[in-house]
Amino acid sequence: MADAAARLRSLAEQVLGAPLPVRLRAWDGSQAGPPDAPALVVRNRRALRRMLFKPGELGLARAWVSGDLEIEGDLYTTLDAMAGLVWERGEDAPGLVQSVRDPAVRAAVRELLMLAGPPLPPAPPREEVRRPRRRLHTRHTDKRAISHHYDVGNDFYELVLGPSMVYSCAYWEDGGTLETAQRDKLELISAKLGLTSGQRLLDVGCGWGSMAIHAAREHGVGVVGITLSQEQAAYARKRVADEGLTDRVEIRVQDYRDVKDGPFDAISSIGMAEHVGADRYLDYARRLYDLLGPGGRLLNHQIARRPQGDESTYQVDEFIDAYVFPDGELAPLGTTVTQLERAGFEVRDVESIREHYARTLRHWVTNLEADWDRAMRLAGPGRARVWRLYMAASALAFERNRIGVNQVLAVRTPEPGTSGLPLRTRTWNT
After folding, report:
1. What CATH number is given to the structural domain containing 21?
2. pTM for this structure?
């Protein structure tokens, strides 16, 4: 097939009803599109079959993860250019099902199928999680989902996250480093929780132990950190021992539903609540409320989506659900605050740090790309490609205000109603 790129570009634009904002380079070496635009490289016909038989985000992701689709040029520029076709099509723009009712579009789809050629649709890449979405967020399914995401290998996470081993949004100031920004985020949370020597902190979803270690070392707090990841727990325990904090910090492989040894003075939940799920969220909030003593504080650090239609519904991203966070669900900020209040909490402060997450993700992508060959050896080429796409696309999503991240401070306010917080809550000692 000579000049496959021009034919592919023409047919794709007929189906999409919009011009392609990128240059195409096809498997035969041909190119079509603006010469100064970033290039989408369709390496083989299988890439086209993946996109045709699963149109939209998931088909593109499968082609990318398998290496059938490449990007030539700046990854962020390309994803930003594609956003209007994949993630941000206007409400009036017809979807593929509606579009194919047009005879001209149907004819273009038939030509694309001929161009893609046999055989039947290729199997998804092995990195894809394939399971029915039923019986979600049981202890068993949550443990399996957490293992898929976090048991990739601690060496891989060290490469991406850097020495802080903090896998959540950092808290930046101009000119700061990633390590400084992560330390400042942990200190901000400590200040909001009012941590003082002798208190007990429960760190839900403790990861590799960074918050637990910071709270114990810097504030003299006794900490119980819980995770469902065996690899995280082993790494965190070693870090705790190396810091000489085994008398203050206990790391458990434990579900939050199984914690029985309250009350705690404070609870931190940093980047964990996205895993809880819509059906379980109120139970999660009530469980944390019950684990706090009177006057105890909760700091809930959580990604949020923008409201779309029914604010009570949760959003599942096809690519992220299949490759990154199985069973993860994002809710609007208002829904989260409502659920915390229904559980009995008094919500005292909400801080959006959306731009901070975009900057954090760009630093993680830089770390990954700087040691790309080692990343592929550690996690495998497919998994490394998943992470590169996921983090770069997420950075753009935060920058374009499609998603946000918020720190919600809530209190188990005792009778007669004194929260114990300062009158001016934004005077955190950071």
Report:
1. 3.30.1050
2. 0.89
Query: Could you give the number of structural domains in the chain?
Result: 2
Tell me: do 216 and 331 sit in the same domain: yes
307 belongs to a structural domain:
yes
Q: Whole-angstrom Cα distance, residue 111 to residue 48?
A: 12
CA gap 125, 312 in Å, rounded: 33
Is there a single domain that holds both residue 149 and residue 73?
Answer: no
Closest to 350 (Cα-Cα) out of 271, 426, 295: 426
Helix runs in 292-407, H state only: 318-323, 333-342, 354-370, 372-379, 381-399
Taking the C-alpha atoms of residue 79 and residue 45, their distance in angstroms, rounded to an integer, is 22
Residue 259 located in a structural domain? yes
pLDDT digits (tens, 9 = 90+) for 197-256: 999 999 999 999 999 999 999 999 999 999 999 999 999 999 999 999 999 999 999 999
Q: Are residues 176 and 281 in the same domain?
A: yes
Mean pLDDT, residues 273-290 taken together? 93
Instruction: Name the more confident of 3 and 424.
Output: 3
* pLDDT confidence band for 295 (50 / 70 / 90): very high
